[in-house]
Write a structure and sequence with these properties.
28 helices, about 675 residues, alpha/beta
Amino acid sequence: MKRTLLSALLQGTLLTAGLSSSLAAQTPFVNTLMPVPAHLTAATGSLPWNDAITVGLPRFRDSRLDAAIVRTLQQMEGKTGVHRPPSLGNDPSAKLVIDVEGPGETIQTIDEDEAYTLLITPAGAKLHAATTVGAMRGLTTLTQLVQNDGTGFFLPAVQIDDTPRFRWRGLMIDTGRHFEPIDVIKRNLDAMAAVKLNVFHWHLTEDQGFRIESKLYPGLTAKGSDGLYYTQDQAREIVAYAHARGIRVVPEFEMPGHSVAWLVAYPKLASGSIPTGIRREFGVSNYALDPTREETYQFIQRFLTEMTGLFPDAYYHIGGDETPAPDWKTNPRILAFKKQHNLKDNDALQAYFNTRVLAILTGLHKHMVGWDEIFTPGLPTDAVIQSWRGAKSLVSAAKQGYQGILSQPWYLDGMQSAERHYLADPIPAGSDLTPEQSKRILGGETPMWGEQLNQLSIDSRIWPRTAAIAERFWSPADVRDVDDMYRRLDVESIRLEALGLTHLTHQDAALRELAGTENIDALRVFASVLQPVSFGERYKGQHTDQLTPLDNLVDAVRPDPPSRHRIEVLVRNLLASPANQQAKAELDSAFKSWLSAVPVVEEQMQHSPLLNVAHPRAQQLGDLAQTGEEALSYLGGSTKAPAGWKQGALAQIEEARKNQALLRFTFLDPLEQLIKAAQE
C-alpha cells in the first residue's frame, strides 16, 4: 500500500520521537518505539487488546510467517496476560489483519523489502507488507505499541509507514577469542530482531580459536579450539534461527593474519614461523598464511566451498586486518615471489592475496567483505570495505566505486555512551558524497570484540546501547533527540530483558557473587555510578589473556548506566533554572544515597579481596557526594563557598578522573559543572 493511499485512511499529526502537547491531550499514545519509524501519525482512540482479538491472514501465509506471528502473540501474552488467539485464520474482518503479498526472497539478501505499513483504529488493526520480513518488522512495532491505562491493555490509534534508511544494519559478535554458547547467540538474535537489525556478523576464527567445524579439515577444531566450537549442525541451526527472524548470517574467517588457529592445525599453510599452540595473549600476531603457495589457495578454495553448505548468505567476510607478517619480509622464497610478481611490499602482497581469495569467492557466487586494510590499489571494486578506522576511508572507498559498511564509531568495547554512538552516522553530516556514491554506503555494523567478556557479561556489553545504534541505522537521519532516545531506551531495555537477555540481571548476580551475600542494596548503589574503562585502558592496566578470569567489579558494572544521563539532565535543568526545586531535590537525594551506601560497601569490601580492589573508588564516592551536597548549598542561595573551596573541589574531580580498579565514575562532568556554578 503506497504512503499516499494509507495517509487517506487516517488523519493525524506527523510524529518522530515525541508528541506535541496538543496531541498528547487528545490521545493516550506514549511513543516508546525504538527504532523510530520513518513516518508515524497518531490519532485519538485505541484498540483494546483483550480476548476478543482475532488474527486473519487474508492473502499469503507460510510456516515462516506463521511462526513469526505466533512469537509475537506469545510476547503480547507475556506483556498483557491476555491469552493469544487459539488459531490463525484468513478472515479479512479479523481484529488484527496481517496482509502480506508474498514470502520475499528464499535466501534473504541485502535488497530484501523490509517496508511495512501499520494502521490501528478503534475498530481494528491492519499490517501490510510486501514480504514476510517486512511483516516481521511490523510485528515488532506492534509489540512495542502495547500499553495500558491501569485497567487494561490497548494499542493506540496510529498510522505507521516505515522502511529502513540503510540496508545493512549489523551486529558482530567475536566468538574466536572467547567462545559463546548457542543460547547466548540465540538470545542476541532475538534482541537484534526486536530492534530491527538484519545482519549477524559471526566472527568465527581468531588466533585464540577456530570455532566452526570442518569435515574436510578436522584438525582446525581438533587442534585449534580447545574443544569449544560450533558443529556444522549447530551452524545450520543458528542460520535457520536467524532466518526465521529476518536476519542474515555473514560468517567471518580471518585471513591471512589472525590465523594462528589455522596454522597450529595445518603448519604447511604458514609463511615461515610455525606456532606451537593457539595464542592465549591478545593483540596483533606475527603469524600469517603464506600467500605465495598455490597449496594455500587450494586449501582456502576447498574450505570455503564446504562453508557454503552452511552459510547461504551472499556475503563472506575474510577479515584481512592487522597482518604485519614479518616472514613476508625475510623468507627468501617469499621475497623471490614478490620480486617475480613486482610486488614492492607487504601491502602489495596482501592485495595479491585478497585478489586471489576474491576470485575464489566470486566463483562460489559470494561477495567478499574485509576490514579496510584490504582497501589497496588494484583491488577489484567487487569487494566490500568494512571500515574500522573511520568514515574517511569509507568515503574514499565509495568515491572509488566500492560498497562499504561503517563500524568505527560503534565499537562497543570502547565503553562509550549510547549518546555518543547515537549521534554518529554511516554518512556523516557534511559529507561531499554524491547521491550515487552515498548509495554505496550500505549501512553500519556495531562490533562486539571478545577479549574482555564472557558468556555472563556479554549481554551487558552489547545491550541496551545497541538498540540506540539500531535506531541510527533504521530511522531518518534527523531523529537525533538524545534525551528522548534515553527515555525510550529505558523502556526498550526492559523489553529486551523480557526476551531472555541478562544485561540487567547480570550486575546483581555478579555483585552477589563478589560480596558473598544477598544484601547488596548499598553495593548496587555504588555500582550504579560506575562504568568500565575502555578496552584500551583495560588492556594497558590489566594483563589479560584468554585464560584470565573475568570476575572483578569491572566485569559486573554496565557501560553507560542510567545514572550518567540522569545526573547530566538534573544538573542541566538546575543550572538552567536554579529555582528548580525538583531537580535540586533529586540531586540531593542521589548524593545522600551515595553517602549512606559508602560505609556499608567499605565494610563488605573488608571481606572480599576482589571487591577490595575498588576500595579507593568507594572512598572517592563518599568525598564526591559530600562535595555535591556542598555545591548544591552554594548554588543560587545566600550561602557562598569559602575561599579556595572551588579550587579544591575541582582538584578532587581531576583526581577522580584517573583510572582506579579499571572503573570510572559516571557523573564527573555534570558534578564539575555544578561546582563551577557555585558562588564563592
